[in-house]
Design brief:
The protein is of the alpha/beta class. It has one domain (2-229): Spore Coat Polysaccharide Biosynthesis Protein SpsA, Chain A (Alpha-Beta Complex), CATH 3.90.550.10. Helices cover 27% and strands 29% of the residues. An 8-stranded mixed beta sheet has the order 5-6-4-1-7-12-9-13. Strands 2-3 form a two-stranded antiparallel ribbon. Strands 8-14 form a two-stranded antiparallel sheet. Helix 1 (33-44) packs across helix 4 and helix 5 crosses helix 6 (191-200). The radius of gyration is 17 Å and the shape is globular.
Length: 231
């Protein structure tokens, strides 16, 4: 199974740290955020990993080169920041099998990636978590072993509702759904819209629940919390 990591973002809310480097290269306990993601993918047994780069992507290429601890690396350029679905589409020609997708700024650990790797029989598998403020995210409704509905940033949602953590396993079927995805109100091609298209076409979308906190590094405050949690 291949891996794919989103690492094209600038990280405006993390200035001045990102003034001369991409968000994925911000240091967390002495190592770039992206390295934490690659380390867990390598420990999971992923043999090849694609990295989607954009803002100052040459810094990422120069640091990591063509491999990480024996895991082959390949780079894909997202020239314009047009959303997560647009980013994933840059790797379509390279991916011919199921793959794991994560963002460099969302910290994950091997047990979760192993659980996703073993979750077969779905066109897509989402990682879900409970959140006290679910209206800030994509709220997900499930039934038995499948996702039934995704509501993007609803006006209201019950405290502790399941939300999308942004860590996935996809089959190559996601690329056809991406091709049929229209721009959102944010003028971006959203991956959650592509997943809805998969579901509407009759494909089964599964899920795993994240057991424990989700460390999403979106600001300097998040980085400080993650540094404490990772010590």
């Amino acid at each position: 199974m291949k891996g794919l990591v989103l690492a094209a973002g600038k990280g405006v809310r993390m200035m001045p740290l990102t003034e001369d480097k991409p968000k994925a290269m911000v240091l967390l306990n002495g190592k770039p955020l992206l390295e934490h993601a690659l380390r867990e993918l390598e420990k999971t047994g992923v043999g090849e990993c694609g990295i989607i780069v954009g803002y100052k992507g040459e810094k990422i290429r120069a640091y990591f080169g063509d491999s990480y601890k024996g895991m082959k690396l390949k780079y894909f350029l997202q020239e314009k920041q047009l959303g997560t679905a647009h980013a994933v589409a840059t790797a379509e020609e390279w991916i011919k099998e199921d793959f794991l997708l994560l963002s460099a700024d969302v910290l994950v650990e091997r047990p979760l990636l192993e659980e996703l790797s073993e979750k077969k029989g779905f066109a897509a598998v989402l990682t879900l978590r409970h959140d006290d403020f679910p209206e800030r995210y994509g709220v997900v409704e499930v039934e038995k072993d499948a996702v039934k509905k995704i509501i993007e940033k609803p006006n209201c949602a019950p405290e502790g509702a399941l939300v999308n953590a942004g860590i996935y396993r996809f089959s190559p079927k996601i690329f056809e759904a991406i091709r049929n995805t229209k721009k959102s109100q944010r003028n971006e091609f959203e991956l959650t819209d592509s997943i809805r298209i998969l579901m509407e076409s009759g494909e089964k979308v599964g899920f795993v629940e994240l057991d424990g906190p989700c460390l999403d590094i979106g600001s300097m405050e998040d980085l400080a919390r993650a540094e404490k949690a990772k010590r």
